[in-house]
Amino acid sequence: MSRSGHDASSTGHGLHHAAVEALAERILKGTYGEGDSLVMTEVQAELDVTQTVLREAIKVLTTKGLLDTDERRGTFVRPREDWNLLDSDVLRWKLAAGVSSDFFADVLELRRSIEPAAAALAAERRTDDDLVALDAALATMGATARDPVLLVRADASFHTAMLLASNNRFYAQMRRVIVPVLVQRDRDVLAADGASEHPHAAHAAVVEAVRNRDVDGAYVAMLELLDLSAREHP
User: Fold this and answer.
1) What is the dihedral of CA 64, 70, 76, 80, to 10 degrees?
2) Which residues contact 73 (CB under 8 A, 6 or more apart)?
3) Would you say residue 177 has pLDDT above 90?
4) Could you tell me which residue ranges the HTH gntR-type domain spans (predicted)?
C-alpha cells in the first residue's frame, strides 16, 4: 500500500472513531434522549462527517445497545436499560457523562456477588505469579499514603490481580467492568474529603488468606474490604 493510501486509511479510521465518540457523548449526556429519533441530516451537520462515516458510527452504537433502527421511526435512542454497560466503551462513556450514587451502589452489589467468590477461588488456585502481582500491588499501596494518584492505581492493580488469580475466565473478564468504576469511585472519594482509613491493611488481609490457601478466610476478608469501600463511598 502506498504511503498516501495508508494516510487516507488512518484518516478515515480517525474520523469514524471521532464520530462514534461524539455521538455516544450526546446520547449519554442526554442531548439525544431515550426514544428520540435522530434527524440524520442534522446529526451529520453537527458532527461534520460524511453519510458513510455517520452510517458506520450508528452501526457501532447499535451493536452496543445505544441505538436501533426501524422503518417507522428511523434511527432512535434505545431505553437506558438496553444499553450494554458490560461493554467497556459504553461503561467509559457512562462514567465520563457522570454517574449517581445509585450507580456506584449497583456496582458494589455486583462486586459483593463476584469478588469474595473470586478471592476464595484465588486461595484455592493461585500461582506464584499471582502472588507476585498481588504483593506488588500491596507494596505500592503501602507506600502511597501521600500520593492519591498512585493509591488509585495500586487499588486498581490489586483488584485486577485478584480477579485474574481466581483463574476463572469469566471472573477475570469482570475486571473490565469493576476496575474502571473502582477507579472513578476512588478518585471521587479522594477528591472529596479523602479516605478516612488507609486501605492497605484490609487488602493485606485478603492477600494473606490467599497466600495461606484459606478459602473461607479469603471470602470473608474480601467481604470486609468491600464493607470498608461502602463506608468510604456511601
Assistant:
1) -50
2) 37
3) yes
4) 13-80
Nearest 5°: the CA angle 233, 131, 184 is 25
Contact 200, 151 (CB under 8 A): no
Q: In one letter, which amino acid is 198?
A: H
Confidence of residue 192 (pLDDT cuts 50, 70, 90): low
Report how far residue 144's alpha carbon sits from residue 161's, in angstroms, rounded to the nearest whole number.
18
What single-letter DSSP state applies at residue 76?
E
Who contacts 128 (Cβ-Cβ below 8 Å, separation ≥6)? Answer: none
d(CA 148, CA 155): 10
Alpha-carbon span 163 to 174, nearest angstrom: 8
